[in-house]
Amino acid sequence: LNGSRQCFWGRGEAMNVSYSYSVKSDKSFGFTFMKPFLGWQKYSNISFSAYRDFAYLPWNLCNSKENGLHFQYSGQLWARKLFHNIKATMTWRTLCPSRETVFSIREYAGHTIKCSLENSVAFDTRNNRLLPSKGLLLRFAQEYAGLMGDATFVKHQFDFQAAAPLIFGTFLSASIQASVLTSLAGRSLHILDRLYLGGPYDVRGFNINSIGTRGNTSCLGGATSFAGVLHFYIPLKPPESLFAHAFLCTGCVASVHSKNRLSDLANFQRISGGIGLVLILGNIIRVEMNYVVPLKHSAGDSYTPGLQFGAGINFL
């Protein structure tokens, strides 16, 4: 169930309420309220969110429940090309192991509280955020957790994307994402806070969130990650919505116990390549159907050569 209301006080406010009930009796809800700052070319707003979410984590063979509160400020500057976002978050999370969960993940079972402050600055000139044919994105984001609760870390993330048109409507696109996590107060990084890669949204051809250190059949995540993807797109019919593409992906995740993270990232890169179709539905969602072949992998990696499907809004 989902309901929304716009401008109910006549000054651009928006409210959205959602509720879901799964066949396994799991309940989720979300409430969001947004208030814009009115004025000449201010392009900024504040928002508040409260939610309860349930997720199955197949890469960890367990489930997670999360209750959270978000307070957020979003602003745009410099002809709406520079974006600034500040978010304060408090979440109460529960990791629920299954019978198959390995001990290295099971030891994090139970409740954990994270109180964090996030800041991001982005320069964005892309003509389309789902599938740009020209433009540039540079984003720097930081997260500090440890104001309250048992989760204590600092996270830095860098995102880069560039696209350039070629001939006959074809274009090239390149994306890079690099992240670093540093634990504070001598505590181990919780399994829910670690970095993961793999799947149809970044390093295609590998199972979702499966790259990195493993414990039997589960992925343990890491503290440093790098991923890069190069695409060549050819427009089909209709040319604004359907594209064929060829791509080459690379990525790696360094363990939380790594003594030389840069060396691990360089020596244990996974590489995959493939071709496929990309469908843009109303500038709301991106759908990919690809045939992927992993070209380089490490022992124990979970990968599946062949067809891979993905739908969402955040793709490398």
From TrEMBL:
Top-rank taxon: Eukaryota
Cellular component aspect of the GO annotation: mitochondrial outer membrane
Major localization listed first in the record, in broad terms: mitochondrion
Pfam family, one: Omp85
Protein's cellular compartments: Mitochondrion outer membrane
GO BP annotations, alphabetical order: mitochondrial respiratory chain complex assembly; protein insertion into mitochondrial outer membrane
Bacterial surface antigen (D15) domain span: 8-315
Keyword Zinc set for record: no
Family the entry assigns: Belongs to the SAM50/omp85 family.
Name assigned to this protein: Bac_surface_Ag domain-containing protein
UniProt source species: Dracunculus medinensis (Guinea worm)
